[in-house]
TrEMBL record:
Pfam families noted in UniProt: GGACT
Name of this chain's protein: Gamma-glutamylcyclotransferase
Phylogenetic lineage: Bacteria, Bacillati, Bacillota, Bacilli, Bacillales
GO molecular function, one term: transferase activity
KW Transferase (keyword) present: yes
CDD domains documented for this protein: GGCT_like
Coiled coil feature spans: none
Positions of the Gamma-glutamylcyclotransferase AIG2-like domain: 5-118
UniProt keyword terms in alphabetical order: Transferase
Superkingdom per UniProt: Bacteria
The keyword Mitochondrion is assigned to this record: no
Amino acid sequence: MHLRTLLPGLSNHHVVAGFIQAAKPGIIHGRLVDYGPYPALLRDEAAGRSGSVVRGLWIAVNRQGLRNMDQLEQFLGIEEDNDYDRIWVTDIAQPEQSGWVYVWDSPRGCPPIDESYWPDYYARKQKGT
């Protein structure tokens, strides 16, 4: 599930564009925090208590696409010192749909985003509203 700058039309879509085999909208449990030019997804206790959800895009990519995403997200592997961890999650509305997402384990002092969709929030942020 991609929630951030890998979405079509956003700054890092080129990282996966040539490797996408399929794509469809999705929704997962979690919350976003604002790290500045991009958000971070949290699936922490606060997200669980609030019942918050995040909308994004499930994309199927080949192995090179996954390697490119891992490099962008600074995911070096399981048990490594990663910026983001990669975890397997299931879509809320489509239980047959599951896949990898990149998450932080804490907000790291970043402010919460009280919206479920990063592109909408980011567009408003850019306009200063």
